[in-house]
Amino acid sequence: MPFATISETAKILGFRSRSQLYQWIDTGRLDEFLYLDKKGRKYLKLKGLREFMTANTVPRSNGVFS
User: Between vectors from CA 51 to CA 46 and to CA 57, what angle results, nearest 5°?
Assistant: First the structure.
């Protein structure tokens, strides 16, 4: 699966909610992974996203990013 919705991406990465991802999108931190379709729906490219998040956040012991 090369792209996923924000909700799907949050579940895949182990976030409790989508809010952290939306904050990163709003500040431009995920611009290289963001894709907008013709209707304006937002998707994130999954390839390399976990590595990017790991490098730019502090993972908790249970595998969830904070």
Answer: 115
